[in-house]
What does this fold into?
Amino acid sequence: MHIKFSGPVSVFHDRRLPEAAIPAGYAALIDAYHLSVPVPRVLSAIGTKHRIIDQAGWRIYTPRHAPDATLEGHLTFALKNEGLDLAVLKRLFLAAKEDEIAELVKQKPTGLYTRRIWFLYEWLLGRELNLPTADKVSYVDAVDTELQYASSGQNSVRHRVRNNLPGTPDFCPLVFKTAALVDFVARDLKERARVVVSEVPKDLLARTAAFLLLKDSKSSYVIEGERPPQDRIQRWGRVIGEAGRAPLDEAEFLRLQRIVIGDERFVRLGFRQEGGFVGEHDRETQRPIPDHISARHEDIDSLVRGLIAFDQAAENELDPVVAAAVLSFGFVYIHPFEDGNGRIHRYLIHHVLARCGFNPPGIHFPVSAAILDKIGEYKEVLESYSSRLLPCVDWESTSQGNVKVLNDTGDFYRFFDATPHAEFLYECVQRTVEEDLPMETQFLRSFDTFRAGVENMIDMPERTLNNLLGFLQQNQGRLSKRARDNEFSQLTPDEITKIEELYQAAFSDTSGVAS
It folds into this structure.
């Protein structure tokens, strides 16, 4: 089969180029082999100018970067400049002739890129090419750690390649080392959190931790558009507090779903036995209008195995926040349950951070509260992959208003670029470490000062004191006329003045922030 590579184009898969240029690397391979895959976030092409242009999801290289218009040329260009896109690579290897890949390796048996191609072919497809073991040359990493995050790796003697892929063939999303992520990692938020906590008395820290748990639990329900009773919020908060204590397995996933759902009369518990999607229904026809289509139920077993294996391998290997992003967003794209996926997805963030010892003992950052405050950005991050995945899913509507996926889509949930997800999660974690944790601690200090001052004047039950504080918070430290005339009519004008002064003195350093 003769493969024809494209000449200059202005539009590629509905994506306009900054200038007419020749697709290179993954773009060229997707086009030449007619691969139905989610198109990478950033594509490469060869332009006519002698400067590199980064614009609108394209990197336009100079003519001197042009690869040979061959499978080897574009594959080598992709591995060298674009990192690993395992979904594209797997579909490419399935589309190419086995002999074509074997011949490529035979021509350059000691080549750095040909050995990586050989290893990736056998790792992704689970079958060996008819090739002898590589000569004893220096090992090369499967993942270029200058470009993407990887594990420490194990040597594959057959290929003389260090397998530093952070997952298994069942589940292995990858994250690029962007400037933003490199900066986040350099901030050492784990140490910053430890310093904040070390300065807080134990009793105050315990109260801070309890509030942060409750805040996260409540926010996680609000994100789902739910307003459950307080006992369910507290119960889920207790579950978050135990995150990371037990390793993930199928039984743990099922336990979490039972706790999240509570009332199982209208929800089938357990892993899905049919299709699933996120979106709306047409009001007249009840036909699904999906924003995201979940993994086929036939693929859930292997995908969940992959999640579990990734969780076990990620501990002490990947950066904790990067690992948390990969696992949690991978889970929510798979959507293995009929209901409860969103809250378990956010629970998994806590699970990984706790397992990796990222958060101080006893403290769980209110990541869901940060997500809630960035809900628009959160949805954009989810759609950053769903919007590229959806065109690759062939589906039909079922009589129950569900979706039935007609093509093999498992690889699109095993392998995706989780870079935007890691950047977003790091933003949320940074906020919880640098703002929420110290501000909540400061609020409790201020509250204790205020309470002590009020109790020196008046005996007041805790509930009444909290009510008083609430009124003062709502009215910039002043007791409204309504509160003076009703709930606190027994206070004298002099007492009210002193209470307002106590409030101002206690909370002057919190910029009006109170919980």
